[in-house]
């Protein structure tokens, strides 16, 4: 009687979903952007249909099991059957603006690992760990090591000086004189083209960061530098990339008559060169992950089942087990 029971347990363990079976966010096909297509489910799989002309429609099949996040542009329509298949395969779906900029809503699969969310919450809830993440974020902006004895207030001062110096350099390069950042909504119509372009480009950047956080299952609200807003972590991460992305775009449009529209278009065009999404994912994992060998796979945990129970003493317990006899 024991042998069949062991065999049945083995088959049950093999059939149970684990994190090792899920697609990795860091894979080469992590993010796929679609626009001006109809996403449907047919007898073969999920596909994108492109209307070439009145008599011809091209069909491109989407490798749903290899895509961690599907970005749907404003010209996409999608069927419920296709969404259900994407959810079963563990693919996050994010509704975005044109070119993948601006994230409006996200549909997260039930099978999405909570590993990175747990890492984020643990670091955010511990004051010492939260300070460490904040300090490392500032260090990533400065590009070199931050002294251990430095305070957060000193880091804020250093960051302010860095941004002033960058504004001055870019202003000199474009011959526009002194520049002062102004992002107050009540003064929107009084802003110069650079400020208008910078606000528009930053909004696009926030959307990209938002999409990356959704794909990893992180909370956008639990920031380490910013606080008090549902996009605190978005703002934290976006500040890592503004100096090399949105700022050069904005200053290049200092003579534009429509700086907001041109900033969105130019940022979207240059996004292919930035290769920003993989970089954002890697930076999130570096900030929230523990210190391990760089050659190791840090995208997922493979040591626990996808669904488990938490206990303050034993840690992880298997789910799907009746513990009714424990208290007797």
From TrEMBL:
Cofactor(s) the protein needs: Mg(2+); Mn(2+)
Signal sequence, renumbered to the chain: none
Cited Pfam families: Cas_Cas1
Residues annotated as binding Mn(2+): 159, 226, 239
EC number, as in UniProt: 3.1.-.-
Assigned keywords, A-Z: Antiviral defense, DNA-binding, Endonuclease, Hydrolase, Magnesium, Manganese, Metal-binding, Nuclease
Single GO MF annotation: endonuclease activity
Broad enzyme group: hydrolase
Subunit structure: Homodimer, forms a heterotetramer with a Cas2 homodimer.
Family affiliation: Belongs to the CRISPR-associated endonuclease Cas1 family.
Free-text function comment from the UniProt entry: CRISPR (clustered regularly interspaced short palindromic repeat), is an adaptive immune system that provides protection against mobile genetic elements (viruses, transposable elements and conjugative plasmids). CRISPR clusters contain spacers, sequences complementary to antecedent mobile elements, and target invading nucleic acids. CRISPR clusters are transcribed and processed into CRISPR RNA (crRNA). Acts as a dsDNA endonuclease. Involved in the integration of spacer DNA into the CRISPR cassette.
Entry protein name: CRISPR-associated endonuclease Cas1
The organism of origin for this protein: Streptomyces vastus
Originating gene: cas1e
């Amino acid at each position: 009687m024991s042998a069949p029971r062991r065999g049945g347990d083995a088959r049950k363990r093999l059939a149970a979903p684990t994190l090792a079976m899920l697609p990795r966010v860091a894979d080469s096909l992590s993010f796929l952007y679609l626009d001006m297509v109809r996403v449907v489910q047919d007898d073969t799989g999920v596909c994108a249909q492109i209307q070439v002309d009145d008599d011809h429609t091209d069909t491109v099949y989407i490798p749903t099991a290899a895509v961690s996040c599907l970005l749907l542009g404003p010209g996409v329509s999608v069927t419920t059957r296709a969404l259900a298949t994407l959810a079963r395969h563990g693919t996050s779906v994010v509704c975005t603006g044109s070119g993948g900029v601006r994230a409006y809503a996200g549909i997260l699969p039930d099978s999405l690992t909570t590993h990175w969310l747990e890492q984020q919450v643990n670091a955010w809830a511990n004051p010492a760990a939260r300070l460490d993440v904040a300090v490392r974020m500032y260090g990533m902006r400065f590009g070199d090591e931050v002294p251990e004895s430095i305070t957060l207030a000193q880091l804020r001062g250093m960051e302010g000086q860095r941004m002033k110096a960058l504004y001055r350099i870019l202003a000199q390069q474009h011959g526009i004189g002194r520049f002062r950042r102004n992002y107050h909504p009540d003064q929107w119509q009084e802003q110069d083209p650079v400020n208008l372009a910078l606000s528009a480009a930053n909004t696009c950047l926030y959307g990209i960061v938002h999409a990356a956080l959704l794909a990893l299952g992180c909370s956008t609200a639990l920031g380490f530098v910013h606080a008090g807003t549902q996009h605190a972590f978005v703002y934290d991460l976006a500040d890592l990339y503004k100096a090399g992305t949105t700022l050069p775009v904005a200053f290049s449009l200092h003579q534009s008559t429509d700086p907001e529209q041109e900033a969105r278009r130019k940022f979207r065009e240059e996004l292919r060169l930035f290769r920003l999404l993989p970089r954002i994912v890697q930076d999130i994992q570096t900030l929230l992950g523990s210190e391990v060998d760089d050659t190791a796979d840090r995208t997922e945990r493979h040591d626990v089942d996808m669904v488990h129970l938490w206990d303050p003493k034993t840690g992880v317990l298997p789910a799907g087990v009746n513990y009714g006899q424990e208290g007797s």
